[in-house]
Amino acid sequence: MLTSLNKILLIFMEELRLKFADLFAGIGGFRLAFEKADYECVFSCEIDQACQEVYLNNFGDKPKSDIRKIDLKTLPYFDVLTAGFPCQPFSICGRRKGFHDTRGTLFFHICEIIEHINPPVVVLENVKHILHHDQGRTLEVILYSLEDMGYVVNYETVNSRDFGLPQNRERVIFIATKTRKFNFKNLRKSYIFPTLSEFLCTSGKFEYLNTEEYTMIDNPKQQPSGLIFVGYRNKSIWKTGIRPNTEHLSRVHHQPNRIYSIAGVHPTIPSQETSGRFFIYIPEENVVRKLTIRECYRIMGFPDDFKIHSNLAECYKQIGNSVCIPVIYELANQIKKQIFSYQDREGEIVNNGMKS
């Protein structure tokens, strides 16, 4: 009898769980965070085969491949749509055209799914540059597209450094809702920066630099971002016509040859190992070494038992393109608290014949 009752309760609780769709899923950063917050993933989509492989190994679920080929009629209902979508160029024929200005872009296919399912909440993530992309036109189209479909939209630049990770990583989060506007001010942040030293592996195959391969600077200071720039690698790069004391900097990327102390935080983990970051200074040992790939996953908030790809270059690419788990986890909890709990309270008031 108890077993049958437990089964009934389990089915009932499953029905009550909020459901989400994981679009442009990558290796499953959104899924890790939302499932940790007790949401249920009912659909996933990711075109990259290497990412599909990692996703399958970790979740036992292979994402659908091409968002452009999804049959909308086969989609299950979900309460929340999540997408770390690519910032594909938007072709804009006119102003304030909303949904119709997205035609021909991958964002348009997200909008098609949103319009078909009409979920209560949409969560989109992108690099902070999207706010200024194409002189602000891309942002304008995103906002008007969502508003055209009846959503109230709010967005904010969030930094993983404020959520317990030793990485200065800024990303823009858009949250569109059907009810009241999401309040980013309610996000619980940690105002004491964690340090890289707390996230390092104690053993493993470490890649050290010889002393002649780098130069330390005098009197390094911690920057407001939490970074402590202590030196740079002595790489042979283009030096014609550049200012004195900036010879170590790339002309394209501003930080790739810099070395940072583990007493501070790390710059944004890039999507390509060849971007040249990842080198850290360990004061206690007076050595410079490269972050291990496992350490890269740690400072993105991934658990140590996460199954990574067998190809190291793919691993760097995948983790650099992913999301920080504690950031998305806090968002998932706040969405539940601000949007769905609010709706439940409102429903109880109506059902009890009371007025708010």
TrEMBL record:
Keyword Phosphoprotein recorded: no
EC nos: 2.1.1.37
A GO biological process held by the record: DNA restriction-modification system
Catalytic activity: a 2'-deoxycytidine in DNA + S-adenosyl-L-methionine = a 5-methyl-2'-deoxycytidine in DNA + S-adenosyl-L-homocysteine + H(+)
UniProt-recorded Gene Ontology molecular function terms: DNA (cytosine-5-)-methyltransferase activity
CDD domains tied to this protein: Cyt_C5_DNA_methylase (cd00315)
Location of the active site: 87
InterPro entries assigned to the protein according to its UniProt record, in alphabetical order: C5-MTase (IPR050750), C5_DNA_meth_AS (IPR018117), C5_MeTfrase (IPR001525), C5_meth_CS (IPR031303), SAM-dependent_MTases_sf (IPR029063)
Keywords of this entry: Methyltransferase, Restriction system, S-adenosyl-L-methionine, Transferase
Pfam families assigned: DNA_methylase
Family the entry assigns: Belongs to the class I-like SAM-binding methyltransferase superfamily. C5-methyltransferase family.
Protein name as catalogued: Cytosine-specific methyltransferase
Species this chain originates from: Halotia branconii CENA392
